[in-house]
Amino acid sequence: MARILGLDLGSHSVKGLLLDSNARSAGPVVKGYAEVRRAPEGDKQETLRNALRELLARPELQQVDQVVVALPGQSLATHQLSLPFSDPKRIESTISFEVESQLPFDLSEAVFDYQVATQVKDKGSELLVGVIRREELSSLLGMLGELGVDPRVVTHPGITYQNLLNQQPGLFAGLDAEAVAIVDIGHERTTLAIGRPGVGVEFSRTFAGGGLNLSRSLATEFQTPLPEAHHWKETHGALAGAAQAQGPDGERAAAAFVRGLQPVLRELRPSFKSFTSRTRRQVGAVLLCGGSARMPGLAEQLSKDLGMPVRVLAHPQEESSTGPATVQPEAMQAYALALRGQASGAKAPRFNLRRGEFAFKGDYDYVKDKVGLLASFAATLLLLLIASGVVRNSVLARREAQVDAVLCDVTQRILGSCEKNYDLALNRLKGVESPAAALPKLSAVNLLAEMTQRVPQDVPVTFDRMDIDLERITVRGETESSKQIDSIVTALKGHRCFKEVKEGRVEKTRDGSKVAFRLDIQVQCPEQQAQAGEG
């Protein structure tokens, strides 16, 4: 179960719709809806923050598992790009260059993402690309973070309606059209999304114009302050053909509203033509949503101006918990955003600006990037460990074979038989009944080896005579100085069996370049003393 909050950050009010995607029910259930008006004057960022703070405190919007928002305002630029290929990897490697060529500022200052609109194998792709300045996205996320909101998805307001086209095809029942246009008329902006039920959004843009234009036109017609004109529009406003538009004032107001609609119509008509030129399909019907869609007679007036069926988009009857029918059109974007939170697989739009440095820390995409990096590192480390183990085992096996061969050779010569087990060979060599038992524990060869190993390697010395027996060693040699003789004596005294080392006569050689010396070394090992004591 997931409780998903769709946040519509409108310029006139903020709306929140809580959707419960309980797997045990037939479909998502709307658990709550709330709307808070923004202050008409003041800093836009501050009015948005205050309205959101009040909205998020509403009891009907509590216990939220994830949040989805669309970019507010007109800061988002939308581009339609055509690429001559459909391979996702080629799209990823190419799109940044295409986007940069269309920006009036450096790409490093922008954040963008894309959604595939149409794609034909071996023919190419049509992409919807949304671009926003990095600082604006950072500011929005920072403000939401201050209010304790960390949205999983930050999406395009037009691409948001793909969730309706794919997940709620019943909303478009009865429309016999090649393509339908969802027109969200807000206060300061209008969002257009064109697509097909079951397919998704194929064309989208956001442009200036909306309910504020109607209020301004009414204020100009009756020469009244804008706040009063806006209040009258919401309370009594209607277009020609509606019951509220009767009488002289009603007709004047209806005519003013028609004039106020012209900026929206001037954008809709060329947008429809652009879509038709790209897809060779006609827009056959329009569905209205947004706050201004509640105005009586608006659908009929747009149908007359556009020459096609126009109706208000409303929630299914079983989801009337979103509020009375009069508020359902303006809750439609919040509803579509909440649906985005439960979409998965092919039904889920790709577009999400929470990527890279702005990635949602609990998002699968973020974790996937990190896991992929860690998995690559772990795989590399595992391969290195395996290779190291193989090499080490191979080297140890060769070294063990060499040791066994040497041990076998030694035992063969001494004992008359090959023995590769070190412990057994050592015991046999020490045994009293073995031939090795007759070998003396101390020999002249051993004493010679011990003495020569004790001579410091950095002392140049030449021994020209050595007399060695088991009790005394007498040596005669040459070196460069008396100091080096002292070094040799000191080193020899460090051996446990050299009980006493005496220097004999020291004299210069005939050519005077070296000194000749003699050493007498008394040999007595500790074990010899012990044996003598026992005897």
* Strand residue percentage: 15-25%
**CATH homology-level superfamily of the domain at 440-534:** General secretion pathway protein M, EpsM
What structural category characterises the helix and strand content? alpha+beta
> What is the name of the CATH topology of the domain at 440-534?
Gyrase A, domain 2
- Helix share bin: 40-55%
Tell me the strand order in the biggest sheet. 3-2-1-4-8
Cα separation of the termini: 94 Å
- DSSP, total strands: 18
CATH architecture of the domain at 440-534: 2-Layer Sandwich
- The parts where pLDDT drops under 50 for at least 5 residues are 318-327
Model description:
- With 535 residues, this protein is α+β, with helices and mostly antiparallel strands.
- Among the domains are: 374-436; 440-534, Gyrase A, domain 2 (2-Layer Sandwich).
- It is 40% helix and 24% strand.
- The protein has a five-stranded mixed beta sheet.
- A hairpin with a 3-residue loop joins strand 14 (461-468) and strand 15 (472-479).
- The N and C termini lie far apart (94 Å).
- Mean pLDDT is 84; it is low at 318-327.
